[in-house]
Design brief:
Layout: H1 4-86, H2 99-102, H3 105-114, H4 133-138
Length: 139
């Protein structure tokens, strides 16, 4: 036969189970809300990433177009110097600007690196750079 003690024990276990179910339901609801919030934020971040990727591709294409344009300008300048040299214009009397100004940056940097330093690079007392032999040959 079932005793009163057993019924009270069963009642307390059922009460604890009901309380545990209530707590677990609340926790489940909280976790679901957090999951929904995280999924919403993830979608926002994915759209930002997609925007950044699109921007990156556009930036890369603009840079490539700019580099291509610079290459064309350099080729045109080189072709212009060749044509001027072929038509008899000498380095002593350039058509527009000095040959040093028309030279591509890499050649100017190479020439600057190869030329030996002239003391501190300054004329005596006036703070202006000393004229190099290359600069004097232009005049």
């Amino acid at each position: 036969m079932i005793t009163l003690e057993q019924i009270r024990l069963l009642e307390s276990k059922i009460t604890r189970a009901i309380e545990l179910i209530r707590v677990l339901k609340e926790e489940n609801g909280t976790l679901r809300k957090g999951l929904e919030s995280a999924q919403k934020r993830m979608k926002e971040l994915e759209s930002l990433v997609d925007g950044f990727k699109t921007d990156q591709h556009e930036i890369e294409s603009v840079i490539l177009r700019t580099l291509h344009t610079l290459d064309e300008l350099e080729e045109n300048a080189t072709a212009g110097r060749r044509a001027a040299a072929a038509s008899g214009i000498t380095a002593g009397a350039p058509a527009a600007g000095s040959a040093r100004q028309d030279a591509p940056a890499a050649q100017r940097h190479k020439a600057a690196a190869e030329s030996p330093p002239a003391g501190d690079g300054q004329a005596a007392g006036n703070g202006e750079p000393r004229a190099t032999k290359e600069e004097l040959d232009i005049f």
